[in-house]
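call fold(seq) -> C-alpha cells
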Amino acid sequence: MVYSQQEVALTTFGGNGEGWRIVYSTATHQEIYDYVIKAFNTAWKYRFPTFVLGDGYQAKMREPLELYNPKEKGITMVETYPLIGLPGEIGNNRQPQHLCNIYSLEEELYDVVMKVSAEYEAVSSEIEEFDEKNCDGADIIIISHGVVSRAADDAVKALQAQGIKAGYFRPITLRPFPTKQLRDAIARSSAQKLLVVESAYGQLYRLLRQEIYGETVPMETLFMPGVGIIDYDIINKVKSIL
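ret:
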C-alpha cells in the first residue's frame, strides 16, 4: 500500500507478457476482507493472477467490519490442489510435473498467447464489477475507483441536493475493465463532461482513454497524487467546469 493510487499501471498491465490478470480495487475495510476471499476463489477458478488493491489511507483509517467464515455467507471455496511436491516418486509411481515458463519457438509462443487471450476474453464478462449511481440524464459523470470513490459518492449526493445532475461510476475491477457498462452509462446520460478523479497523476485517466476510446464526451481530470481527496475537492471541481 502507498498513500496514492500509483499502482494502477503496474497491476493492470505491468510486467513481461500480455498482462492477463484480474485486479480488484477496494474502497472500504469490509471490501478488503471480502475481496481477499473472493480473489482466492477467482484465481483458482479462472487460473489468472489476481490482485486486490488497497490504499495507504485505508491503513490509517479505523472503521468497523465483519469477520466471518465464508461458509456462513454461503460462499463455497474453490477446491485447491498442489502443483509441486506431489506424492510419489518420479519415474516410479508418477510422472514429473512440467511447469513450462519458456517457449523456444515463436509459433509455439503465438499459439499459447492466443489460447490464453481467448480464455481471458471468454470469462471477462463474468468477472467485471462496477458501481453506478445517478448516471441517467446526468450532466456530468464522476469516475473514480478505490477509496477515492467514497469521496465521489458523497460529492454526488451533495451536488444532487444542490440541483446539479451529477452521476457516479466506479470500476471495481480495473482489469478486466467494465467498459461496456461505462459506455452504457455515458449513453444514458446527458453528460457534457466526464470527470476522472484519482489520487495519482493520470494512471486511471490513461486506462480510461484506452478502454472507452471513441467516446466524444470531453474528459476533465482531478489529479491529487499523494494527498487525500475529499468530497469538497470534487464538488469545487465540478462547479468550476460546468
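The mean pLDDT is 95.
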